[in-house]
Amino acid sequence: MTLFAVTAVGADRPGIVAAVANALESVNGNIEDAAMQALGGQFAISLLVNVDADAQTLRDTLERAASGLVLTVSEAQTQERAASPTHLFTIYGADRPGLVGTAAAVLFARGANVTNLQSRILPADKPIYVMAFEVSLPEGTDGEAICDIIRDAMPGVQASVNTLERTQL
Question: Who contacts 11 (Cβ-Cβ below 8 Å, separation ≥6)?
Answer without folding.
Answer: 41, 42, 43, 68
